[in-house]
Specification:
By secondary structure, the chain is an alpha/beta fold. The chain has 13 helices and 13 strands. It is 39% helix and 24% strand. The protein has a 6-stranded mixed beta sheet with strand order 5-6-7-3-8-9, with helices on both faces. The chain has a 4-stranded antiparallel beta sheet with strand order 11-12-10-13, covered by helices on one side. Strands 2-1-4 form a 3-stranded antiparallel beta sheet, with helices on one face.
Length: 349
């Protein structure tokens, strides 16, 4: 039985508060070699809505860069974000963002910007005054607030509509103005719930470039998204959630390496697929082998990718095989998520 299944069984048979008493050691690839004061830290954090589980026993150390939260509706993504911002308090455990507690919002929000999934704008404001007003509330002078407002509007490419009332904005424009407001005070941490929703392809590309620019400057960019191929392209690391539990964390390859029940699929294009297949079938860790329809390559599945690649090199040299391409077939977010969540659902059905 996996640790996730054990946790689920415990949850079904014990009182929620009793379940919280079990301590778990922080673990996972995101925690390595980054001091706590530069991390977003979750120490054994749980959140229950009465008897309903939000998230349970979450241990994370999130370093700077772009981190994506991936999971279906109800998996715990929004709960995790609301805990980070202090909109929710944990039932148990401790959260620190760059050493600041969400229970200290006055200091926390000097270092944090938040972009909610759903719109909630003050009535009657245009885009410029929406950004400017919050900078003034932040304590900045008129001159500083004006300078930062202009910069934020230009950076998010919404300056052309800054004088228009936000009630008349399109969905994409509303996303841009929210992002402008969230970034205007130059926070070290950005928490963005579905920030790409409503943007056209060019808009998505522009905002993704902005995320990469912020991450390159050493900032934390935490996003949730259901557009998995974009998550795969932009993320430095991912956190996969299901039913309130962190299923896996890390970059795509390290997360994929945690899965030992499901073989890694690899596509190979070459000039001698038959000869290659005859050698590959002798590998003890080979789980599947299929010839491509055009008979110019193979699709293989192995439970030991490191050993496979080492042996493949030897075979290619010995058989004088010309390799056109060797490509992992399932090292993207969607494949990883389907492996992890699909196997969990099968085991509980």
């Amino acid at each position: 039985m996996s640790s996730h299944e054990q946790d689920t069984a415990l949850k079904q048979n014990v009182d929620p508060q009793a379940d919280l008493a079990t301590e778990a050691e922080p673990e996972g690839p995101l925690a390595e070699q980054v001091p706590d004061e530069r991390c977003l830290c979750f120490d054994n954090v749980s959140k229950f809505y009465g008897e309903v589980l939000g998230v349970n026993r979450v241990n994370l150390r999130i370093p700077p860069g772009i981190t994506s939260l991936v999971g279906p509706n109800g998996s715990g993504k929004s709960t995790l974000m609301n805990l980070m911002t202090g909109l929710l308090e944990p039932t148990a455990g401790e959260i620190k963002l760059l050493g600041f507690s969400p229970r200290d919002p006055q200091n926390l929000f000097r270092h944090l910007g938040y972009c909610a999934q759903f719109d909630s704008f003050p009535p009657g404001l245009n885009g410029y005054h929406f950004v400017y007003s919050y900078l003034r509330v932040h304590g900045m002078s008129r001159e500083e607030a004006k300078r930062r407002t202009d910069n934020a509007l230009e950076r998010t490419n919404i300056a052309h509509a800054a004088d228009r009332r936000m009630a008349g904005y399109s969905k994409g424009m509303r996303q841009r103005i929210k992002l402008a407001q969230a970034t205007a005070h130059d926070p070290q941490v950005l928490i963005l719930d579905e920030p790409l929703n409503g943007l056209d392809p060019m808009g998505r590309a522009e905002i993704i470039d902005l995320f990469k620019e912020l991450a390159a400057a050493g900032k934390h960019v935490i996003i949730s998204s259901h557009i998995l191929h974009e998550v795969d392209l932009i993320s430095d690391q991912v956190i996969l959630l299901n039913e309130g539990y962190v299923v896996a964390e890390g970059d795509i390859r390290s997360v994929r390496g945690e899965i030992d029940k499901h073989p890694l699929q690899i596509m190979i294009r070459c000039d001698k697929p038959e000869s290659l297949a005859m050698r590959l079938v002798r590998m003890p860790h080979l789980r599947e082998l299929k010839m491509h329809d055009d008979r110019q390559g193979l699709l293989v599945a192995t439970s030991d990718s490191k050993a496979f690649y080492l042996e493949l090199n030897d075979i290619v040299l010995e058989e004088e095989i010309a390799i056109e391409a060797v490509t992992p077939a399932d090292e993207d977010v969607h494949a990883v998520y389907q492996y992890l969540i699909g196997s969990g659902q099968e085991s509980t059905s």
